[in-house]
Amino acid sequence: MLGEYRIVGRRASEIAASVERGVGTGELAPGALLPPMRELAAELGVNPNTVAAAYRTLRERGVIETDGRRGSRVRARPASTPREALSVEVPAGARDLSTGNPDLALLPSLEGPLAAAARRYAAAPTRYGDAAVVEDLARLARQGLDADGVPAGPVGLTSGALDAIERVLAAHLKPGDAVAVEDPGWGSTLDLVPALGLRVVPVAVDCDGPLVEAVARALAAGVRALVVTARAQNPTGAAVSADRAAELRALLAAHPGVLVIDDDHGHGIVDLPLHCLGGVTRHWALVRSTAKAYGPDLRLAVLTGDAVTLDRVRGRQRLGPGWVSRLLQYAVAELWASGAVDPVAVARSYGVRRDGLVAELAARGVAAYGRSGMNVWVPVGDETGVVTRLLAAGWAVAPGARFRVASGAGVRLTVSSLGPADVPVLARAVADAVRPGAAVRYD
Asked: In this structure, is the dihedral angle defined by the CA atoms of residues 163, 164, 166 and 170, taken in order, positive or negative?
């Protein structure tokens, strides 16, 4: 079961530490089955409740996972190891398409908005006890949400989309609960869920979003939450279509206790309409980040949802950071009011590069996908081989392992830094790396 490694300890903290040491040294390999609690308790001469407490601690830390009668196993990859660690070292002279950053040329200057924010702050400095959300920012945010058909709800702010997702999950779920997450999907969410002591249930996607049958299976398996990327899905570029949203909403209506989170991080860089799933179940949230349209360092995301969820999130937030900097809020309000970003023009710019690459690859017999946003997903047969051959050809791409749980191998290419002349050159390199006929279909 554990090979030569022996778990030791008399207290729950000591037993948990012993398991973590084994995982850290590699002596407890991913997938290793831990002894049943009573068996380990007898071996260590302790009460079974002590071992149960140790295992509970390990689950909450994301070190192990428990699957009913099948027992407890070391997680396939400890939650403390971020998926970004599964990156490639970019050699000098290579083009880096692996990072997922937006095109800097499409980001507005922050000089004017930050200067305006500083003047506004000078006129009325922020004090403890001031409202957490600036009034004009809340008004502009709600206007945008209303225009996109998002159900009515209070507005909150977090330090980015992932911060919002974490706070919403923590507001309703407890360690051990299962969360349905897109697969392939955003690596940070796939890291976050086990880090909170929750279980990932992968849900397959196609170009129109999560597959209905996959979500149905997850719901039947008892998931407590569903996280969906509305548009510009990372890494596949999927966007939830009107028909898919209608099917999913009808399915979710039969599961009113499930928490639904819509991640609309692509707001501001897409021209496809939003089809959110929120409002069907009792508890829901929609997150709208400013990072992709205005810059990754502008750490602000708008959050809306049902009153209970927002109240819990804001209440817990008051005990931590308290609020998102009002200086940032002033700057974002200035950007929104001035129309500093034209979403249609930005979406068109990304679309020309993204669609052009997909078309060039198709002409070379390589299936590739990217309906919206700045990424193209290429399913492959040999992920490591493709990444290595592309590096040798001067292109660094993100290995699909950063975004996968159970789905097939692939690579992600971010088109932000591509010029028109780059697209056919890159397509030829990808086709050579994939070796025609090796790619698998995605839809």
From this structure: positive
